[in-house]
Queue: 2 jobs
Job 1
Amino acid sequence: MNIFEDTAPTSSRKRPIRVVVLGASGSIGMQTLDVCRQHTDKVEVVGLAVRSSTEFVARAAERHGVRVVAVTDERHAKDPALESLPAGCDLLVGDDALEEICLRDDVDCVVSAVVGFAGINAGYAALKAGKTLLYANKESLVVGGDLLMPLVAPGQLIPVDSEHSAIYQCLVGERRSDLHRIWLTCSGGPFFGMSRRQLLNVTAGDALRHPTWQMGAKITIDSATLMNKGLEVLEAHHLFDVDVDDVSVLVQRQSMIHSMVEFSDGVVKAQLGPSDMRIPIQYALSYPERWDSPADRVDYCGAPNFTFDRADEDTFGCLALAKRAGREGGIMPCAMNAANEVANLAFREDRCNFLDIEEVVRSVMNETKPDPVESLEQLHEVDARSREAASRALARISR
Ligand code: NDP
Ligand code: MG
């Protein structure tokens, strides 16, 4: 006899989930395929989408025996690698290919691991078509949460970001009205403890040596500026319907507590585990079940002591700017995100210094009025306009 009532929803699955992976050639995409390979009895990969990594996608298509491949960059439509796609595999090309692949009848579930705002139409289309959306593409949620979240049915959108997966897991079986505060943990990034004077001289190479996670280049820079944490505050705000100021960022240098939820009675639930993105990816696929771990287990007796620090928003101004964008709302997060995407790339290409990133974001936000979000078309316009403003700000700053 069990002493507790089992409140977690149970799965009614009768056949493997049919999955497409958008951004299959990236860090999250590849780890998703790794998890899928370990659970072929439960997951069938039916489709893969990339921007231009045609050699990768052709190999992965063969390996997983997929039925459809999408390549969004038309300049790569005739790449020789695509001639070796499995027999009968459909090839979709162009910007709309991401949406088309999500809308197929033989797809139950979309893993969106595209980087940046470029993933927004696909996420919107997947939700609208009633597909389950496993969402890593945080920029789209930050920019378009006001349009995306009203489409979501319970259990339809499962976060992949490790912190949001942790929060989701802490909330299963709880009443939403009992949630008091979210403690969003943060590694602190490679430049934790540095002064602004020291930050003037850091390079993209320094930032790319992240202490805990092996990730794509864009999010690695965002982790160093703490913009990633700012995006995650806004992500939590949309996913869990909490005010921006009810999400507190907590530096947890060991990256073993993936986030915490505090309830009205003062009780805090934390989710711990190995720092391995395959765990939240697998949880999103398996929910509401749990499958065997894809990663080594932690020996907590030998684990380092846990430390907690306040995030330094004065030194890492991007975190403060993202929160400001979240408080102002409307199209402000769209402008903030576009400026950050432009400045992040400029820093990686050595066209500006580390502190210029926040300067560009601030400058574009100061030019933007937070009108309400109305449509995807409007967000695309604001995104384009903000990218132009960011390029002008960069030219001014680096002169
Ligand atoms: P990567 O840069 O490693 O990979 C990006 C992927 O997106 C590639 O497959 C790329 O294809 C594809 N892509 C980019 N633009 C387009 C486009 N216009 N159309 C189709 N595909 C496109 O990124 P990550 O895997 O690191 O990150 C992906 C998302 O997950 C981001 O939003 C990030 O914030 C989030 N995330 C990542 C974590 C991580 O550990 N990496 C952790 C938590 C969240 P191609 O190779 O052809 O260019
Ligand atoms: Mg994260």
Note: The first strand starts at residue 17 and ends at 22.
Job 2
Amino acid sequence: MSATSKSIHGEWSSRFAFVLAATGSAVGLGNIWKFPYITGENGGGAFVLVYLLCVVLVGLPIMIAEIMLGRRGRQSPVNTMELLAEQAEADPNWHYLGWLGLIAGALILSYYSVIAGWAGSYALKAVTGSFIDADAENIKLLFDGFINNPLQQVFWHSVFMLATMSVVARGVQSGLEKSVKFLMPCLFVLLMLLVAYAMVSGAYQQGLDFLFTPDFSKITGQAVLTAMGHAFFTLSLGMGAVMVYGSYLPRPVSIAKTAVLIAGTDTVVALLAGIAIFPIVFANNLEPGSGPGLIFQTLPIAFGNMTGGYLFGVLFFVMLVFAALTSSISLIEPAVAWLVENKGMTRYQACIWSGFTVWFLGLGTAFSFNIGSQVKLFDRTIFQLFDYLSANLMLPIGGFAIAVFAGWIMKTKDSEDELAMPHAIVYQVWKWVVSYISPAAVFLVFLHAVGVI
Ligand code: PFF
């Protein structure tokens, strides 16, 4: 396939559509659910700083590389890597990078869908007025009752998987594109509103201090690994999601500018979520390190007690479901594209196969919080294990390989041509960072995490 031909799966209608879709993929539960709770678990400011450094030094250059590889290959990540390895006269085993991504995507989506199900259930709770006048204690009881119920977990997980697969089945333009156009701006406005609430009703200064005053004594090797893993997770990097979206990107669009926009928006949304949540945590004497339930135990207190909280609560959780949906579709798209290309399936059939597999895997997470909470491997519940394996190991390893491929394996003239940067110096800086800094950073973080340095 030549470098300029189109993907058989279709194309985005414009640069704006791609930006929305890729931002939709990046902004999701990772920003609003995961970032605050892992920041809480890892002591705040110093963790945030490491995460921001990883976004700039590792995430952004790798995002440019991943989009570039996708647009050059124009196929599912497995086939793209095979084609690009052939063009670079490199080892065909590079296509295993695509496989690593498919597996990581399935693992992530399996638990992502369960948590998105929580957001769905909370949207309904908001509609039925469950948060009205509630205090921290009622909200905690509500949350514990919900996650302890295995049937409810499976029900909401199933609803979310069905929703995801029905969007993906519709294809690039009518399925993926339409669903993101309105959601992102609305989510942004609602977050600003929550920040305003936190400013007046929460322990605002304490929240800010927690987020932005680094205390390096709280940072361990594992915390640094978590921060880096999260940079990959939140930017949807290292598993082919951005690569497959890049393969639907029309040729004249500037990849570098687009990547800066996506990474910038994603970071701002995560910080806003943190600024909204921690003041509420401290004002209600909640524990910042209380884990995956953090936003579900804090934000309902705000909604239950603020003017207009009923409406805002409903809107917020509905938005959260949509933000999750625009991410989940990108988690499964690489697998669907591969099934269509290699197994001769229609998109619809590919969705059924991949959707069912992921749904089944997700049962492990759905039961991790109740009947299966004692089932542990390497001292972790299934949810914790899937999260650790995918976010902390597979995504950084995938990202490392993408950086090495773009920096060392692909021919310079090919990457230069595909990126078409307006100034040669910008290309050179990118090439240098992606060849040396990003892979070295990932490598050092791994060494630090296992205690070698
Ligand atoms: N970036 C998404 C989030 O922050 O919620 C999650 C995600 C989507 C991770 C797609 C990885 C991915 F490929």
Note: The chain has one domain: 15-449.
